[in-house]
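Protein modeling request. Please complete all fields; requests missing the sequence field cannot be processed.
Requester role: graduate student
Desired output: 3D structure, token encoding
Chains: 1
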Amino acid sequence: MRVAIQGERGSNSHMAALQMVSHADVLPCVLSTDVFAALLEKRADCAVLPIENSLHGSVAEHYDLLLTHPVRVDAEGMLRIRHNLIAAPGVSIEDVRTVLSHPVALSQCRRFLAGFTQARALPFYDTAGSVKHVMAESLRDTAGIAPVLAAEEYGANVLVPGIEDHAQNYTRFYLVRRAEDSAPAAISPDKLSVAFALEHRPGTLVSALQRLAEAGVNLTKIESRPVPGQPWEYIFFVEFRYDSAAAADNALDSLRRVSAMVHELGRYAAAPAEPPE
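Delivered output (277 residues):
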């Protein structure tokens, strides 16, 4: 199955795709908008996208793209994030004078970088892309911060494993398909993602959340995004767990009674809170 991801081969998104899709044939894309284009133009069968990191928070752009494209969330995955200092074979840690990686990865390795005073840290467009660049340019004084898969993908060497500040660093991913191609989950779904809009007046959000509570579902996530062209008005994205399809339907029906718009993004099996090592 062809799986579109944002980023290079060897990235965390690549690792998530391999975890979520059997025999995944990964299609790297530069931008998230390119991922959706590849999916809708049928150059990919599905896409795997990060939606939230336990330290960095939500990927806001992906919420916007999910709402504005005819796609559906069909699965959820969880990946433990491990950052590693990676360089070309034969390069020692004493040789490194520059460290490249995505700004989020750099921010999650501050403790290591603060003590690694011989080198300067510079932002790069992608974690795995930093290793790809080091190898393509035959750099002998530069290392990247990336997953182990990047070292395997580009023939590089891990100098220092596990340099992240926090071991409890996880990213949730969505498996997304075209809406018309969406199929029932292999595992019975017990989680639902929905976007809704409310009238801009006091108490509407409280009323909407109260309706969900009365429906007996377990709210696990709420995120707000601004409505383009309508300052200080918002779309709310909610995830909730449910015990039965009837409970999920009842929750949505209740939400529709107090919302100007309700758009179901998908039903899927919730990923474990902490993936196996």
